[in-house]
Each structure stands twice: as C-alpha cells, then as structure tokens.
Amino acid sequence: MSNYTDELVDFDEALDRYDPVLGFEVHVELNTKTKMFSDAPNAFGDDPNTNVTPVDLGLPGVLPVVNKTAVEYSILIGLALNCQIAEKCGFARKNYFYPDTPKNFQTSQYDDPIAFDGWLDIELEDGEVFRVEIERAHMEEDAGKLTHMGGAAGRIQGADYSLVDYNRAGVPLVEIVTKPIVGAGKRAPELARAYVAAVREIVKNLGVSDAKMERGNVRCDANVSLMPKDAQKFGTRTETKNVNSLRAVEHAVRFEIERHAAVLDSGAKIVQETRHWHEDTRSTTSGRPKSDADDYRYFPEPDLVPIITTAEWVEELRSRLPEPPADRRKRLKADWGYADKEFRDVVNAGVLDEIEATIAAGTSAAVARKWWMGEIARLAKASDKEIADLGVTPQTIVELNSLIEAKKINDKIARQVLEFVLEGEGSPTDIVEKRSLAVVNDDDALGKAVDDAMAAMPDVVEKIKGGKMQAIGALMGPVMKATRGQADAGRVREIVMEKLGL
Amino acid sequence: MNELIKLSAAELAAKLRAGEVTSVEAVQAHLDRIAEVDGTLNAFLHVNAEEALAVAAEVDAIRAAGGAEAEALHPLAGVPIAIKDLIVTKGQPTTAASKMLDGWMSPYDATVIEKIRAAKLPMLGKTNLDEFAMGSSTEHSAYGVTRNPWDLGRIPGGSGGGSAAAVAAFEAPLALGTDTGGSIRQPGAVTGTVGVKPTYGAVSRYGAIAMASSLDQIGPVSRTVLDSALLQELIGGHDPKDSTSLPQDLEGLVAAAQTGAAGDLTGVRVGVIKELQGEGYQEGVQARFNESLELLKNAGAEIVEVSCPNFKYALGAYYLIMPSEVSSNLAKFDGVRFGQRVLPTEGPLTIERVMAATRAAGFGDEVKRRIILGTYALSAGYYDAYYGSAQKVRTLIQRDFDAAFEQADVLISPTAPTVAFELGANDNDPVAMYLNDVATIPANLAGVPGITVPGGLSEGLPVGIQFLAPAYEDARLYRAGAALETLLEKQWGRTLISQAPAIDTASIAQEA
C-alpha cells in the first residue's frame, strides 16, 4: 500500500502531537589526487571516461589498492568528529547489480568502520547547542554517473538508452552516519541544516574535500520519523535521498515531518522507504521500498588486507588538525568584540578569514568589519560575485585606512580608490598620487575657496554670525566644488570660524 | 620428433646460452609440435606464433651481438612458455575458456606477463582450462575438452588441463597455471608433470581473472622440479598492484632444487598426513605413495605421521568459500563494459534483462552452479551458517597445519586420490569431480605452498606425490621435490614422462 498523500499537517501543529527523530548520512567526496583504489586522477569536470584505469572499469583480472591519503583524510574526519579510530579495520563488498558500479559490487566498510562513536556540538542561530552523536564514519568508493537519454525526464524508466561515465567511479567517499537525534522538536529542520553545514565546514576546514554541495562533494540523506509525544519507541522512518543544499535539507525535514504527521493522523502507517526530494515543488515523492532486509550479501573484501592504524600515526594526524571552526568562531568573536548580530552577519557573509587577515595586517576590528561588510560587500553584490572572489587584499584595506587616518583622503574618496584598485590601477597610495586625489587641506587654497563662497552668500554668513553653526554646511557645497571634492571638511569648518572670529 | 622439445627449460636455456641452438629454432620446434598434436589434444586455445618467433629472434640477435645486453639476459630468455588463458595478455585474446569473453582483448598485461616479457620468454599461446578455472577436468571449457597425452580418452585434470597437457606432450617446456583448489597440482599429477602452488601472495595475482580471490595463486608448470623453481623465481615477488602480495621475495628456490637433486634428505622430517591416504585413494596411488616414502626414508628423511583432523571439513568449507567469492567476482561479467552482450529475444530491453540474458548465454553450467551456491551462502540469514562457519573451519585447518609443521619440515600426501578419470565419467556427479581435489584444497585454505612431482604409474597412468611446506618456505618444496625426483628417476633409470606413449593423432578426428 502506498502512503502517498497530498495531505500535510501544519508544522507547529504536527509538533504539538509528535516528537521528530532525525538521522543523517552525509557522504563526503575526498579531494585526493587519485581514486580510492586506483591511480586514476580524482578530478571533476573532465571528458567522460577519461579518468579511468582498468581497475575503475572493473576489467577482468584487476585488483584494488587502498589510497593511503584517503585513509589519512578519513582518520582526520573521524578525529574532527571526536570519534574513536579503529586500530584495525577492513573493507567489505556490497553486492548489487547496477551499471554505474563497474564491478557490480561496491567496496565499502561494513562492520568495522575506521571511525566510530563521536559527537559534534551544533550551535543554532540563537546560541542553543545540540549535541549530535556520530555513530560512525566509514570509507567507500563512489559510483559512476548515469545519464538516461530519451524517455521521461532523465529517469531510467522509459529511457531509450543510458550513458555511463566512470570518471566518478572509485572516487573516495567518507560516509558519516549519526545516531538517532532525539529532542530537537520544532527546531528539527533548523538543526538538520546546521548539522550538514557544520560537517561541510569541518571537511572544508580540514582541506580533505572541496565541500561544494552543488557539485555533490557533500551529499545528505535525511532520515525522519515521528513518534507520539508520550511514546518511547521510535516511529517508522523514511530516508530522503540526495538532499544537496543546506536549504533543501531544512525544507525536506520540515516537509517529511508535516507529511508523516498527516499519515499518522489518518491512522495509516508510514512505509519504510526512500523518498526523492524535488527542489521545484519542495516536496518528496516515494522512491523504492527499503527494509533492513535489503540483501547486499556483504562479505570481507578478499583482495585487500586490513588497515592497521598505529597510535603514532593517529597522534601524528591529530597534531595536524586545524582549530575546529566552532572554537575559532568563539575565539574571534571574543577577540574582536563584535555584537552578536554583527558577528553573525560576518559569519553569514563568509568573511571571517578576510577580516582576520585584515586585522592581522594592521587595522582595528571595527575598521575591518566596516570595509568587508560595507563597501566590499556592496561591490560584490553589484558585480554578482562572492566577496572572497573580488580579489580585495587585506593590504589594500590597511593602506586605505592609513590614508584616511592621515587625512590624505576622506571616506568617499577612499571608496573610489578601492574601485580603482580593483580595476587594476595599482596600490591605493599610487592611485591617490597618480590621480591627485589627496584631500586639499592647504590653507591658502582652502582659504581662497572659503572667501569666494562667503562673498557669494552674504546671507549665509550672517546666519553663521548669528550663531546658526549648521549654516556652515551651505558653504561646503561651493568649497567642495572649487576643490573637486577633495577639501577636508573639518578644516573648512575651522577656517570659516577663524575668518569670522568665532 | 625434434629432440629440442624433449629438453627441460634449464637444459634448453644452457644450450641457448652456449649458442648450440637458437631461440627461433626452439620456438619453431615447439610450434611444429603444436601443429602436429594439438588438433588432437586441444591444449591451446590460441597459438601466438608470430609474436613468439619475433621475441625469439630478438633474443637471438642480442645473444649474437654479445656484450652487456647479452650478459644481462635473463637465464630463461628465449625459452618458450605457454600461458593459462585465465591470465590477461595484451595482443592475444583472453577468454577464461568462457563464451562470455569470446573475442575480448585485454588492454593490459598481468604482472606475471610483464615479467615474462621483460625476461624475453617467447609466449607460445594461451592454454585451455575449465571455464573461469571451475572444474578438475578441463571438460568445462566452452572451447572443447583437452585430452590427456597419456590416454586420449581421459581427462588431463583441471582446471589447468591445457597447461599440464601442453607440457606433458612436449608442446612447451614451461607453462603458467593458477591454483585455487588444486588447479596446478592435480593436472600435474594426472599428466606426470611438475606443478607448484606457491605461498599465497608469493606471486602477484594482478591480471589473473579472479575465481576465488582468497585462494587463487599463479604458479609454474614444468617437467622438472628445477624448471618450476626457475620459473617461480622469475614470476614471484612483491607487486604494489596486488595488496595481498608478500612484501618480501622468496629466495633460494633454484638453489634448493639444486641441493635436493643430490638425493640426500638427511635430517629432514617428512610428515605423512594421516587423513590424506587410505580410504578413497586408489590402490595403485597408495602403492606408489608408499614406495616414495620408502625412498625418502632411505635417503635419510625422518618419516613421521601427523594428524590434521579438520582436513575432513576442508572440501565442505572450500565449496562454501570458493563459490561465495565466485558469486561476487563474476558479477562484473554483465555485458555492459566488455565481452559478450546478449539481448533478450523477447520482452522489453531493460538493463536487468540484458544483464540476465548475457549471463544466461555467456556462462556454462558449472559456473552457474557455483554462482548460485555462493549467492545462497552469502544471503542474509544464511551467512553465519555457511560462509561464517566455513571461515571458522579455515582457521581450524590453518591450526592443523601449524601443529603438523611443529613435527615435520614438510608434509607429504598423494596429490590426487585417483589417476586420470575417463572423459565424461563425472558428467552427472559434480561431487565426484570435486572429491578429486580433496588432498590439494587444504593448502589453498591455509595459504601454504604445495608441489606435485611424478611418483610413478598406476594402470599405465601417472600418479602424483604432493609435498606441502609452511607459508614462505617454498624452498623446502623444491628441495624435497627435487630429491624425490632424483631418487625415483634413479630407480626407474629414466624420467616418467619419457615413458608416455606416442600421441596417436589419427585416433581422434582433428578439429578444423
């Protein structure tokens, strides 16, 4: 019986009656130079079937050889997820026939993953922290890529024929599996997104994956079940496959909660199955039934020998771990003294590295934030680029700021100078020099401009004399015009006061 | 018959070095012999005449030029060799004796083939076998049976019947075999030749089409023990492409064969395996075995009896582990990327149905039988009872060997319980065929090395004597094997193979 239903229960209402239980399987493609079991290049975007050896095609007689770097990357991931590292582990064969799998079995880890029993603290936007328990992180190989030609919308059913590209076959993967996550309640969708974001950030920070979700470097299968509020026993789960953006993870979990609630409310049962995520409709549809009795006839891979991880090796790898992203954020926020919202905006804009480098190069935290969250962000938005891709260096910011502090240029000119820098005209100092952009604070030149302005506007002068100091602003226009905008406004004000004896 | 083909590999190599004969002459003599008898025997699936002669000519030219390059030639350079058609070769078809791979050309060479090319041994061609090496009679080839040169109505053993028959019939002095449960040793026994299954991992498996990965091992086939030692030293050694290959080279194999050839085994403890004799072993086989023991004793060996109580479970464990691995290893033969593709004759053309039609048409019955057995043994709910239990038996057998090797330096048994059986005798009784490997299988399960040497005749047919040694101690096999070879030949006054009858090519209709 299909449990397909168009019915959804309002999210808040659903969670008044049910507790959600989540679970995630996140696949991370490692960015090793070569594949998991062959010396074919591990590269994205090349012509189909060019990054293959006889091993990747599963030709008769070939044997796999484990990529040591992939093992090291897997251990690094395990350590970053606070896992135990197995002293001895091995590979198994997962047997199933499918043309994207050249040997018709996938070489994977089964009952002895390289990393197990870890945890990750996930901080939500408001600072609430959920601890997600990690069941295991294991190594395996990716499959090739099938393209179904003709027929219905790129599906294998009804296709005229299918093309297969084995470039991706054998790319090293680490699959990170959580234990059931209980107690997230209404924050489940938010937690789902934050968890996947945290894993992505960790593997990117480790340098072991390109971590681009849009390229499938990080792929998430999201398991959701509901149980009535007072229940102890988990409900039946569904597994939504290949939810491949952070936003989609959040939406898919939310959708499945709403759908499960509707099915359960109607008295029907949830069928254990995989679900397909559809970004366009933000909904899932039924995939294939999945039960724990799926028979992959796992058995130990006889072509490989066990991997032995010595304590020295693991400790050497541990010493290579960078500071965890969450710890780093906590440290930087305290160091920089930003308000909660300011810091969150900086994190969301993805310019932590840039601000840190700019401060290191010599500006204050406030100045660094002003530039990166202000003018640079505006330029990036205007040119539809990532801030990091604009090419602004910390040195440029330091120089611009020095010029401002030395009163050589004002803020407005500094913004112009930055644009010239990005257009490749040279360093800020050179540009100010070449384009004669330095602020005019030469008293003779300014004095003359002020005299001319006062002569032209006697009524304004009278107002100032009468004590209306804000009227000085009216003189600023003609003075700026006379100096092509380069007048130091503060100095102009002083000169006016001097001349009027105030 | 050209006398060149009667020479052992070592003798031929010496003549080549001395300039008494050329490699081209030697290769041509073997090609002539193949042309003469192979229409009857069907030991070869492919004859590689052109390339073999070209390699031979190259070796001759290097020798003629002399100097450093000639000095650097491998001792076996120019000596022709036949290759079991389970081992992939560039430039020659590789079929595994299956319709599945009809016409398939490998784009790469097996590691052992790279070594053979580097040493410049002309490859005469590819030899017949039971399909994917599954069988003990070479009757299960998709390309016809191979006949035993001693009696054309009998099997040459299997799966490596082609390599053994080729060497026994003087079509080649050397051949490569593969041994998963006895596929080198049992054909050696029933054709009166020498065959060695090295220690698991001593020879790279890269490029040997896998039957059961944890059991498969490539090894030498020859007419003398020394020749096998020479060939194992050439093909052995660590291979970074085979994770299960040993890190170290096994050294001193040729030296051990030369030591053994003196016929003195003083102080060597030879353990007679209680469970591998007596019931189920033909009387003539048992008689030759007992005579060999007597000779060894007279040569100074200390004969002790050892018991390996778990060997009685070996065949059962083997027929669970081997098919399990087979079911997975042969999954890749699906018509998608290489080899035959067969489309279903009716119904929709889906990928599952194309795979099914390809496998239904491409595999023979014995292969299908083992795939089905193995698929069942690995199934959820049965895994522990079958595959799991078999792995436990495997551990027990390894312990039996460990205990036995505390009492003895080498173990000894008949290689096969019977002489060659008649073609078709076991057509309806696969288990009877499986039983022929009862003495060879324990070595594969434990990873230890084994050799078969000719031990005389029973009813006019060869009997093989098997020695087994601890892992890494392949040299002990060569010493004991060469000693027994010397002692027997001294007693007979000639080699066993010289007693083989002439091949009556007229009696069997030659294939077109």
UniProtKB/TrEMBL annotation, chain A:
Question: Record's superkingdom?
Answer: Bacteria
UniProt EC number: 6.3.5.-
Return the annotated region ranges for Disordered: 275-295
The encoding gene is gatB
Q: Which UniProt keywords apply?
A: ATP-binding, Ligase, Nucleotide-binding, Protein biosynthesis
What is the protein name stated in its UniProt record? Aspartyl/glutamyl-tRNA(Asn/Gln) amidotransferase subunit B
InterPro entries referenced in this protein's UniProt entry, alphabetically: Asn/Gln-tRNA_amidoTrfase_suB/E, Asn/Gln-tRNA_Trfase_suB/E_cat, Asn/Gln_amidotransferase, Asn/Gln_tRNA_amidoTrase-B-like, GatB, GatB_Yqey_C_2, Gln-tRNA_amidoTrfase_suB_CS, Gln_synth/guanido_kin_cat_dom
- The organism is Glutamicibacter protophormiae
Quote one Gene Ontology molecular function term: glutaminyl-tRNA synthase (glutamine-hydrolyzing) activity
Output the PANTHER family linked to this UniProt entry.
GLUTAMYL-TRNA GLN AMIDOTRANSFERASE SUBUNIT B MITOCHONDRIAL AND PROKARYOTIC PET112-RELATED, GLUTAMYL-TRNA(GLN) AMIDOTRANSFERASE SUBUNIT B, MITOCHONDRIAL
Gene3D superfamilies linked to this entry: 1.10.10.410
Endpoints of the signal sequence? none
How this chain assembles, per its entry, is: Heterotrimer of A, B and C subunits.
**What is this protein's function?**
Allows the formation of correctly charged Asn-tRNA(Asn) or Gln-tRNA(Gln) through the transamidation of misacylated Asp-tRNA(Asn) or Glu-tRNA(Gln) in organisms which lack either or both of asparaginyl-tRNA or glutaminyl-tRNA synthetases. The reaction takes place in the presence of glutamine and ATP through an activated phospho-Asp-tRNA(Asn) or phospho-Glu-tRNA(Gln).
**Under which main EC class is this enzyme filed?**
ligase
TrEMBL record, chain B:
Gene3D superfamilies recorded for this chain? Amidase signature (AS) domain
EC number in record: 6.3.5.7
One Pfam family linked to the record: Amidase
Q: Which residues form the Amidase domain?
A: 25-477
Please list the reactions this protein catalyses.
Answer: L-glutamyl-tRNA(Gln) + L-glutamine + ATP + H2O = L-glutaminyl-tRNA(Gln) + L-glutamate + ADP + phosphate + H(+)
Q: Which GO terms describe its molecular function?
A: asparaginyl-tRNA synthase (glutamine-hydrolyzing) activity; glutaminyl-tRNA synthase (glutamine-hydrolyzing) activity
Keyword Nucleotide-binding (UniProt): yes
Keywords noted in UniProt: ATP-binding, Ligase, Nucleotide-binding, Protein biosynthesis
Does the record carry Lipid biosynthesis as a key word?
Answer: no
Q: How does it assemble?
A: Heterotrimer of A, B and C subunits.
* Family under the similarity heading: Belongs to the amidase family. GatA subfamily.
Free-text function comment from the UniProt entry: Allows the formation of correctly charged Gln-tRNA(Gln) through the transamidation of misacylated Glu-tRNA(Gln) in organisms which lack glutaminyl-tRNA synthetase. The reaction takes place in the presence of glutamine and ATP through an activated gamma-phospho-Glu-tRNA(Gln).
Q: What is this protein called?
A: Glutamyl-tRNA(Gln) amidotransferase subunit A
Which species does this protein come from? Glutamicibacter protophormiae
Which gene name belongs to this protein? gatA
